[in-house]
Design brief:
Elements: E1 5-8, H1 32-45, E2 49-50, E3 55-56, H2 67-82, E4 90-94, E5 108-112, E6 128-133, H3 138-157, E7 164-171, E8 174-181, E9 184-188, E10 191-192, H4 197-208, H5 212-215, E11 221-223, E12 229-231, E13 242-250, E14 260-266, E15 275-285, H6 291-300, E16 345-349, E17 352-359, E18 365-371, H7 374-379, E19 394-401, E20 405-407, H8 414-433, E21 436-437, E22 446-449, H9 455-458, E23 472-474, E24 481-482, H10 487-490, H11 505-511, H12 521-538, E25 539-541, E26 545-548, E27 557-558, H13 565-569, E28 575-576, H14 579-583, E29 595-596, H15 603-608
Parallel strand pairs: 1-9, 6-7
Antiparallel strand pairs: 2-3, 4-5, 5-6, 7-8, 8-9, 8-10, 11-12, 12-13, 13-14, 14-15, 15-19, 16-19, 17-18, 20-22, 21-24, 22-23, 25-26, 26-27, 28-29
């Protein structure tokens, strides 16, 4: 799902009109144009702009400052001179000399004041970004925009509710504004900040305001310096706001669905204590089959009876004890509505967000709530008389599942791994019984059900009899197809064909140009084989121990530190493990260091080695 790109020939007044200047820069009964005129006078008096030469003149202190540091200082000088009172809670910071989360060195970022002293600023704290280049050519300008797009993908994937992302490129004195929306991208043609100082001032002041309606993130999300998030999306079954506990999956980039899933904690009706659940947000095409409709089918349709020829494999009585005897969980499956192995979605919503419509007589923003869709966001940038725009009509969806899970790689022994894989396979069959085909079987979608992310549930003590047994779950049914839909209509609903490298061979050939075929059950069964193979090849032991594969002809070694072969093979021995590392592993080769507890029979000893799981680590 690629996003159309629209280039406008005008200045930035389409993205940041002067009428949208934040109210804190306006005095009593002052219009935005009058306010900009007064601000320009103060900037000229401060020798930041030479009106006769029509050029900005930054007051740079110190010859050891880099180009990026001098520009960030210049931006902050403008904010201080323009403000009436406090200059605001956000500041521009040069971050060109240090990697962010090990991936990129952003030139200049807009961050909360509280992050000024943080050495490695996370992407979740970057409200906006400025990519700087020392000269301007078309090639240089396009490279800057590509870098801006990359940062936008990282930032929007780092927390829930980022509706759109706004950034700027400054190539010498040529500025361009880019607005990245799910389903559409706006880019203004480069224009001179020297020749158009009021337009540059409008962009900088409005963008630096950092308000949710202007920066594009959810106003219902609260963040503090420790990285803890709370979310106030209204679900019918939750009585309070929910707090993020730990991320499960996220997708980077602006061209996909922007799916982010996270384990969170909330107070549910009818329960005296907070309960952990899974929150998922995604942006899907409004014309396609989406998560909410799919789970309505999975919950509401009566399951078809099992054919006699399949009874020896898929028995309703669970005679193979695939789900029987598993560890306790918060939800419960049955044989009619909530079939075993399928996550139970208890609530969902189509979020609303705030859009600025003007300034009231007291200088405060006037905000209007609208459904969170590409169409409504794009309407902010369409002027009367504009030709119709082509964009992908995305809608924002949030779902809440009380089926709390951990990745399949957190198996405790081979028997649990095989049992969980069989459970996920039964889950796939149960979805088929309700005429829903999953279509995206992958390692990241095969889970094990737990009561919570507490140490006793994620890394439990070995039982006196048998083995640790957690039920297998096939998650994320957002790419599923409705088998009751006529074949000629399925191509209109954008069914994707899986996640590489788990896609069936024939479907890979289709992606390479072969004749299109319909996604069928046997394609998903092949994907199950690749998931089984992938986990088996990478695993060096229980609880996410992985082999770090080196180049051909080189000996492969374990990436985790100082773990002997006896530790890897000792099934009954519980391990203490850093759960944060497990859920934030960025690549299959990322590993977790395991340490056998001093007293395997003591749950207190196992829990003492584990850090608390109450931080949102994106």
């Amino acid at each position: 799902m690629s996003s159309p790109t629209v280039h406008f020939t005008g200045f930035s007044d389409r993205c940041f009109p002067r009428s949208g200047l934040p109210g804190k820069y306006l005095r009593d009964n002052e219009t935005p144009d009058q306010a900009l005129e007064q601000i320009m006078k103060r900037l000229c008096a401060a020798k930041l702009y030479d009106k006769s030469e029509k050029v900005w003149t930054p007051q740079v202190r110190g010859h050891e400052m880099s180009k990026e540091q001098s520009i960030a200082s210049f931006f902050n000088q403008i904010l201080r001179e323009s403000a009436i009172g406090d200059s605001g809670q956000y500041v521009w910071l040069a971050h060109d000399s240090q990697m962010c989360e090990g991936r990129r060195k952003p030139d200049i970022i807009l961050i909360p004041q509280s992050y000024k002293t943080v050495e490695d600023v996370p992407f979740s704290a970057m409200l906006s970004y400025c990519e700087c280049k020392y000269n301007y050519t078309q090639k240089v300008g396009m490279k800057a925009l590509h870098q801006l797009l990359e940062i936008a993908g990282y930032a929007t994937a780092s927390q829930f509710g980022w509706r759109f992302y706004v950034g700027i490129t400054l190539c010498r004195r040529q500025l361009s504004v880019a607005v990245f929306i799910r389903g559409l991208t706006y880019i203004t043609m480069p224009w001179s900040i020297n020749a158009n100082p009021e337009d540059f001032l409008t962009v900088l002041l409005t963008l630096s305001d950092g308000s949710p309606a202007r920066a594009g993130f959810d106003s219902l999300i609260a963040i503090d310096l420790t990285g803890t998030f709370s979310h106030s999306i209204h679900f019918e079954s939750i009585t309070t706001s929910i707090t993020m506990v730990c991320p499960l999956t996220r997708t980077s980039g602006m061209e996909g669905r922007g799916t982010v899933t996270c384990v969170c904690e909330g107070e549910f009706e009818g329960r005296s204590e907070p309960q952990e659940c899974v929150l998922k947000e995604t942006w899907v095409n409004a014309d396609w089959l989406h998560n909410i409709r799919i789970h309505e089918y999975l919950n509401g349709r009566p399951p078809t009876s099992i054919h006699e020829s399949d009874l020896h494999i898929f028995r309703p009585a669970d005679e193979y004890q695939i789900f029987e005897g598993c560890m306790e969980a918060a939800d419960s499956w049955d044989d009619t509505k909530f079939l075993p192995g399928i996550p139970i979605i208890t609530d969902w919503c189509f979020p609303f967000c705030e859009y600025p419509t003007g300034i009231d007589k007291n200088g405060r923003d006037q905000l209007e709530q609208k459904p969170d869709t590409t169409k409504n966001i794009a309407a902010r940038f369409i002027l009367p008389g504009d030709p119709p725009l082509y964009f992908e009509p995305r809608i924002h969806i949030c779902t809440l599942s009380r089926t709390c899970c951990i990745p399949i790689t957190m198996f405790s022994c081979c028997r649990e791994f095989i049992n969980a894989m069989i459970g996920a396979l039964v889950s796939h069959f149960n979805g088929f019984r309700k005429a829903v085909l999953h279509c995206d079987v992958s390692e990241s979608n095969v889970w094990m059900r737990v009561l919570s992310l507490a140490t006793k549930d994620v890394v439990p003590n070995w039982p006196d009899q048998g083995f640790i047994k957690r039920a297998g779950v096939l998650g994320d049914w957002g790419s599923a197809q409705d088998l009751l839909m006529p074949n000629q209509d399925k191509t209109k609903h954008g069914f994707v064909m899986g996640t590489f490298p788990f896609i069936a061979t024939k479907l890979l050939k289709v992606m390479s140009g072969a004749e299109p075929i319909m996604h069928s059950m046997h394609h998903d069964l092949e994907s199950f084989f690749w998931v089984f193979w992938s986990v088996a090849v990478k695993s060096a032991g229980p609880y996410n121990q992985c082999w770090k594969w080196k180049l051909p002809n080189q000996r492969s070694t374990m990436a985790s530190s100082q773990i002997t072969a006896s530790h890897v093979s000792s099934g009954p021995t519980p391990f203490a493990v850093s759960i944060e590392d497990i859920f934030t592993s960025a690549s299959p080769s990322a590993t977790v260091t395991l340490h056998p507890t001093s007293n395997p029979s003591s749950s207190a000893a196992a829990g003492a080695s584990l850090p608390p799981l109450r931080t949102w680590f994106l």
